[in-house]
Prior knowledge:
about 240 residues, alpha/beta, Uracil-DNA Glycosylase, subunit E, five-stranded mixed β-sheet, 5 strands, elongated
Amino acid sequence: MPSPTLAENIAAAQAWWREAGVDHAYLDEPQAWLADDAPAVAAVEKPVAPQKPRLGGDPAGWPRDLAGFRQWWLEEPSLGSAPRIPPRGDAGAPLMMLVPMPEADDGDTLLAGPQGRLLASLATAMGIAPEAVYIAAALPRHTPEPDWQGLGDEGLGEVLLHHIALAAPQRLLVLGTRILPLLGHAPAQAAPSVSELAIQSGHMRFMTSYAPERLLANARQRAGLWQCWLEWTGEG
């Protein structure tokens, strides 16, 4: 009987394993089925969000006088949409009052409603003619629930410090503790209080208290503001 050929031996072995129920080859070690030179799948890069421009743009182009600043405040694109309300008053005023934003119903005049009347009464009690006070807002338009942290990150604080330096008031009253981080200060734990502000021309002492809408609603806070003012001015 002739010896089986190689092909017959392979066929017999396959038949034997098939009869045993094994019809696949298994290996303990994983095998690379793709060739090493197979083209790699390119990683999909996420689009990079464009960086938001700084509020006010390049400080080198900011106005250097108060009249120019008022116009710039109304027209600078990065400061937001219309309607915007300009500050009012003259440079070198005996007192500058800085509030968070215009009143909801303001038209051409900043703080033309109840908040403005409150501040006018306060100025009169301080012995200052209301029209002699420089009135400014941290925001150019009324903005419900503004993102103060985000505004600070975008450079609003630098704009406010420039504004205060141009106004150059004899005294500064900041009405609204949310404004303080923009000026480089932590929110007051117990307003009213007096602190110091670094501006381009040096240092300026200022007093802080609650925002006008809170003062309107709370007689005790109005009394606290008044007592702090008397102590600050040496009249208490």
